[in-house]
Write a structure and sequence with these properties.
Layout lengths: L13 E2 L2 E2 L8 H16 L1 H15 L5 E3 L1 H7 L2 E6 L9 H14 L4 E6 L3 H13 L2 E7 H6 L1 H9 L3 E5 L6 H14 L4 E4 L9 H9 L1 H14 L6 E5 L4 H7 L9 E9 L10 H4 L1 E5 L2 E5 L24 H8 L3 E7 H15 L5 H7 L12 E6 L7 H10 L7
Parallel strand pairs: 4-14, 5-6, 5-8, 6-7, 9-10, 9-14, 10-13
Antiparallel strand pairs: 1-2, 3-4, 11-12
Helix pairs in contact: 2-4, 4-5, 4-9, 5-7, 9-11, 10-11, 14-15
């Protein structure tokens, strides 16, 4: 029997030994304000009425749970895709962004900042701010700005200011650093919409609760389609881990459900160009919480690498670190070429072009043996429009097979 409470942290924000709130003194009032108020506000009838109405009528929820027959035939099992790519703005990120911007308004904040890697969280936050009338500033690594140009254009059209992070690896980690500096300088007027289950308490819990709509719908939809509410496996990709937290949330205490997380292996775990945190990380503090971090022996962060901007992060959320430490979830490292091949396979088999992040979750199908009657649910966290330049380059190079 599973006895541990995996879903939510304790009062200090810890999932086992991971979590907490490690912030500069100037940010402490903001974090404390959130800690004291977030559960009461998001649990109120008024908040839930507005949030649920927007999820249904603006975002387009519930997203389909699709039985992928061709993919199922290839892998000789029953594969369902949770179609978060069909959300407004094209990814699961809108679930959290709308919730946090609504929360910020109730806290009296009129200025929103965010960080983004692949751009999906930036687009979602800019969209929520445009809808609800708040100023929006998005920090994004200079390299990510170059490789995710369509999403940068969308953010600007939505009225957001996109600020490049030019330090370090010029990717997601550095964008988070810049956003935290902004928050310190504008702490009384600004809410920081963190896009993943990372950061100081209460952000990991806050984001997981907003994303938990994914697993709630999976349970309901499975029950409608096959007469049972639990699958045998749930699979999702993990960078920081927001879509995975949402996909796992209502299943982590269901002992019969096997949980699988796919990390970005980059060029390989031992290549020196990877973002597979559970394979390479050690206990440390990154961006305000204690978790597994890719770091040197003296605590310097090791620059990560992934072909997927959304997974290019040297840490993992404390929720997932706890699942890993307790062996509640099985983690796989998926290399860049394996993710790319899975993206091309899904496109040819099902007519769905996935985001590169989601392709990492799909690649688990080549690494795990499933039984014929297993029910396997994979979160398709986003659509691949933003990654077309990468996909087309691979086709032109002839480095990817297009036959399955």
């Amino acid at each position: 029997m599973i006895k541990t409470n995996y879903k939510n942290p304790d009062e200090q924000g810890y999932y086992g030994e991971f979590g907490g709130a490690f912030v500069p003194e100037m940010l402490y009032p903001n974090v404390e304000e959130l800690q004291k108020n977030y559960l009461e506000i998001i649990g109120s009838e008024d908040f839930q009425n507005e949030y649920q109405d927007l999820l249904k009528n603006y975002v387009g929820r519930a997203t389909p749970l699709y039985l992928a027959k061709n993919l199922s035939e290839k892998y000789k099992t029953q594969i369902y895709l949770k179609r978060e790519d069909l959300n407004h703005t094209g990814a699961h990120k809108i679930n959290n962004a709308l919730g946090q911007v609504l929360l910020a308004k109730r806290l009296g904040k009129h200025r929103i900042i965010a960080e983004t890697g692949a751009g999906q969280h930036g687009v979602a936050t800019a969209t929520a701010c445009a809808l609800l009338g708040l100023e929006c500033i998005v920090y994004m690594g200079e390299i990510d700005i170059a490789r995710q140009a369509p999403n940068v254009a969308r953010m600007k059209m939505l009225g957001a200011t996109v600020v490049p992070a030019t330090s370090g690896s010029k990717t997601l980690k550095d964008a988070v650093n810049e956003a935290l500096r902004d928050w310190i300088n504008n702490s009384t007027t600004t809410h920081y919409v963190i896009g993943s289950v990372v950061g100081p308490h209460p952000f990991p819990d806050l984001v997981a609760r907003f994303q938990s709509v994914i697993s709630k719908e999976i349970k309901e939809q499975l029950n409608e389609q096959i007469g049972r509410s639990t699958p045998d496996y749930v699979i999702a990709c993990v960078g920081g881990g927001s879509n995975a937290a949402g996909t796992f949330y209502h299943f982590v205490e269901e002992e019969n459900v096997k949980i699988i997380a796919a990390e970005a292996g980059g060029f390989g775990v031992d290549s020196g160009k990877s973002a597979a945190t559970t394979f390479l990380g050690t206990l440390g503090v990154l961006h305000g919480s204690k978790s597994l971090v890719m770091q040197t022996k003296d605590g310097q962060v090791i620059e990560p690498h992934s072909i997927s901007a959304g997974l290019d992060y040297p840490g993992i959320g404390p929720f997932h670190a706890h699942l890993f430490k307790e062996n509640r979830a099985e983690f796989f490292s998926i290399n860049d070429d394996e993710a790319l091949q899975s993206a091309f396979d899904l496109t040819k088999l099902e007519g769905i072009i996935p985001a590169l992040e989601s392709a990492h979750a799909l690649a688990v199908l080549d690494k795990k043996k499933f039984n014929e009657n297993d029910i396997v649910v994979i979160c398709l966290s986003g659509r691949g429009d933003k990654d077309m330049e990468t996909y087309l380059k691979m086709l032109e190079d002839g480095s990817q097979k297009t036959e399955v």
